[in-house]
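Weekly modeling sync, notes
Attendees: S.R. (lead), two postdocs, one rotation student

Agenda item 3: backlog of single-chain predictions. S.R. asked that every request posted to the team notebook include the full sequence so nobody has to chase files. The rotation student volunteered to paste the first one in as an example of the format we agreed on. Action items at the bottom.

Example entry:
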Amino acid sequence: MPVSVSYTGTMSEAPHVLVVDDDDRLRGLLRRYLIGADFLVTTAANAAEARARLRGLRFDVIVLDVMMPGEDGMGFTRWLRADDRTPVLMLTAQDSVDNRIAGLDSGADDYLVKPFEPGELLARLKAILRRVRAFPGVRFGAFVFDARTGALHEGEQPVPLTSSEEALLRALAKHPGEVLTREALGTGAGTRAIDVQITRLRRKIEPDPRRPRYLVTVRGEGYSLRTDDAGEREL
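Predicted structure, as returned to the notebook:
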C-alpha cells in the first residue's frame, strides 16, 4: 500500500502525525480531518507498515489503533518504547478500565475510546504536542537530552541509556535545578534502586562521577540536575 503523505503550511510549522489503523475508512477520514487541521499526515494499515514508516520518517505523534490483525497496538507500543519516545495516542473500541490501564502501561501517552468525535481527537493531539514542546530538551555541559525521543548525545555522539536511566533522566530534566526526592523519582522502585541508577547514570555523564557536576546529591532531600538553563543553588 503506498504511503499517504500530505500537509498544509510549511514543514517546520506542521506537526507530523502517523495514523496506524487497519480500518481503511477511518484511516482516510482521520487523514483528511487532520490535514484540514494543518497536520502533516502519514498513514499505515498495520504495525508492519508503521515500522517501515518509522525507518524513513520522524513523527511528532502517533495515532495508533489497539485491535489490529497481526501485532496489536499494545505490542507495537512496547516495541517502540524500547528506544523511541514519540508520543502515542491509542484508539480502541474497548472501554473497560483494565484495557485503559493496559494501554497506558504499555507506554501510550493517552487513550481514546471509539467511537469518538474528531474534535476530541484533535484536542488530545494538541495537548500532547503542547506538553512535548514545553519540554523539548535540556543541555548540560557537552550533553543534550532530547525529551521527544529520549535520546542523550554528547556532542554528535549518542550515549546509550537503559530504559530506567532514560526515565530517571527524563524526570530530572523536567525540573532542572529543582530537588526531587527518591520517592518522586522511584516510580515503584525502591530508594536503593534509585541510588544504583543514579550511580550508573553519573558514570555516563560526569567527568568525575565521584564529584558530580550535573547530577548532584542534595543531602537529606534527594537529587537535582544542573543544566545550562538552571540557576545555581547552594547544595
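Discussion: group reviewed the output briefly. The longest helix spans residues 118-134.
Action items: rotation student to repeat for the remaining queue; S.R. to check formatting next week.
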